[in-house]
Design brief:
Blueprint lengths: L22 H4 L1 H10 L12 H9 L1 E2 L5 E2 L7 H11 L4 E6 L5 H13 L5 E3 L6 H4 L1 E3 L1 H7 L6 E3 L1 H8 L2 E5 L6 H4 L2 H7 L1 E4 L4 E4 L5 E7 L10 H4 L2 E5 L6 H18 L9 H16 L18 H18 L6 H12 L5 H14 L6 H11 L1
Parallel strand pairs: 3-10, 3-11, 4-7, 7-10
Antiparallel strand pairs: 1-2, 5-6, 8-9
Helix pairs in contact: 3-4, 3-5, 12-13, 12-14, 13-14, 14-15, 15-17
Amino acid sequence: MTVPETTAAVDGATGPEALRPHAEDAFADELKALAAADDRPRPARWRLSPWAVATYLQGGTLPDGTVITPKYVGPRRLIEVAVTTLATDRALLLLGVPGTAKTWVSEHLAAAVSGDSTLLVQGTAGTPEEAVRYGWNYARLLAQGPSREALVPSPLMRAMSEGMTARVEELTRIPADVQDSLITILSEKTLPIPELGQEVQAVRGFNVIATANDRDRGVNELSSALRRRFNTVVLPLPATPDAEVDIVSRRVDQIGRSLDLPAAPEGLSEIRRVVTVFRELRDGVTIDGRTKLKSPSGTLSTAEAISVVTNGLALAAHFGDGILRPADVAAGILGAVVRDPAADRVVWQEYLETVVRERDGWKDFYRACREASV
């Protein structure tokens, strides 16, 4: 039987065929241009200098005219502190509420520093110690006994031995005893392998970026010993509506291109409307400060706004005329706001009737939200 040419390889799609390319692949041209223009000192095994890494994250124009698109829209000083931390022997902890681009920043930092963002440990309640330290190929272990050939290195062990940047997502989701296995790695820069009487020592260039959610306090809080091994950078929510609209517009455009959705330049007004709704309900007060509001139980983050607009754009493309309209985003907003069917629905209905209904130019949006709420 002949395999069709369109069938992806067993190990998955790469390059333009990947649904969501890694940062180092999606922005390979920008990274290459930065490396060519970068004449500043680079720490050991870094692909770029700290200045170039910050420019990659924040955007700018190179002397040859190459435009580097912003990956993070926010205070430059935060990015500079994060990059500087990685250039020292301290690990970096990115902290913030859901949707503040912690994972996004983590991935792009690793891509710019090491050229590889895939050395990743995903934190969950079931993350075992082997995911942080190492595991075993049990077939080889039974056949040959403990040996380096039977050992399966974790992403952290690989990063240590190759002088790369490892990532740990949702650190506070990981059980406390597994978290503490990081202490020796971060403080002594070594990983003992007692079964073999050996150890792996970190080579220059190794570091760790971890992310954690503010709202997970009390789940598996970090011990003071572990927290001391990190420099913490808190990523805030966008400071202004314009900044948040810019972030949402950029990400929706990137995602839309990867999904072959048509551009929607006329959709900026709907993006601004979604951002306004999210910010007002999140802050508990209208933009003009005149009306206090009840906040729903959900986070209403920038990431959720991006999801609502992307889904709306898909609806407009496949079931509408390609122009993003209130009816395309109404259902998504309802799903984001009403997480608790009882309490949140009351909050949403009150907001519709006291704020949205009275706003000039929002009549179509009000009607669409009312229809979606039925």
